[in-house]
Amino acid sequence: MKRLFIYLVATTLILTSCNQKAKTAEATAAVGQDPQEAVASNQYTDIELPGIQGQTVKVSDYVGKNKLVLIDFWASWCGPCIRELPHVVKAYEHYHAKGLEIVGVSLDKDKESWVQAIEMTGQKWPQMSDLQGWNCKGAQLYGIQSIPANVLINEQGEIIARDLRGEQLLSTIAEKLQ
């Protein structure tokens, strides 16, 4: 009985993990760009998706106007994302006034869950989602295969870091804003 319970828990964790094998051919066709090219590039690629109110949100509206822009890829159903968000909120609270902007890109499919998670976690920065889950065009542009994921961009539009977590996120932002 104990083994069955452990097996069920492990299976559930595997099935609900925040990883996705990229469908490279589909991603390339869907966004008109090779995701591997975007991942290898040092320059950021613009993402333009609907915001919470249906308005267009573009990363390019923030790059160049802020010292740093963090694109944060996440979803309301992703446990690791929800556990990482307090660090992202802390970064925003400490460094927004010093030149950091964050743009959230959600891999949600359900708008209500997405909006509730934003409110519940205290995300005060611009948010966008096409509500296509793993088929999110923004995530495909950056070759995102697991979340949470993020990309840190400087004022010149150069990608200077990826996948920062916890204290490393905070210390990297602090260092880059000096």
Which characteristics define this entry?
about 180 residues; alpha/beta; Glutaredoxin; five-stranded mixed beta sheet; 7 helices; about 40% helix; globular
Helix and strand arrangement:
Elements: H1 2-15, H2 24-31, H3 35-40, E1 48-50, E2 56-58, E3 68-74, H4 79-95, E4 100-106, H5 111-121, E5 127-128, H6 137-141, E6 149-154, E7 159-162, H7 166-176
Parallel strand pairs: 3-4, 4-5
Antiparallel strand pairs: 1-2, 3-6, 6-7
Helix pairs in contact: 4-7
Task: Give the tally of structural domains.
Answer: 1
Low-confidence runs of at least 5 consecutive residues: 4-16, 21-39
General form = globular
Q: What is the subunit organization of this protein?
A: single chain
Sheet bearing the most strands, described? 5 strands, mixed
The computed structural class is alpha/beta
Order of helices and strands: HHHEEEHEHEHEEH
Report the CATH architecture.
3-Layer(aba) Sandwich
